[in-house]
Amino acid sequence: MAIRLTTGLLSLTLLGTSGCLSPRGYLFTYTTLPYELPFDSVAHKASKKCVVDITQIKEPFSRASFSVVWTSRAVVEAAARAGMTELRYADIETLSVFNGTYQRQRLVFYGE
Fold first, then answer.
1. Where are the beta strands (DSSP E) in the chain?
2. How many CA atoms does the CB half-sphere of 102 hold within 13 Å?
3. In a domain, 20, yes or no
4. pLDDT above 60: residue 9
5. Does pTM top 0.70 for this prediction?
6. Which domain holds residue 59?
7. pLDDT tens digits, one per residue of 33-58
């Protein structure tokens, strides 16, 4: 009985660490998660938002780990264009294609 329990726990641990139980697809993944700001804001209502894109392309075939990263604009510039003076909270949206070969992270800031 102890051997079965140990084998079961070891199998579950290996599945969890290998990514089999995580909510990530190898062909396509789109997630939205709350992004932690350096201060704790009590109010989570905001009338304005701005978006900053961070895009990355990786070379998937060799083990050289070549990648290119670029962003659309700075956070301060995006907030100024949206007329924001105070950040309340933020979300991070991640789009991953072919297991991270193409990955776009979009920071969405909300505020007044």
1. 28-35, 48-58, 67-71, 87-97, 102-111
2. 6
3. no
4. yes
5. no
6. 28-111
7. 887 766 555 556 778 888 888 888 88
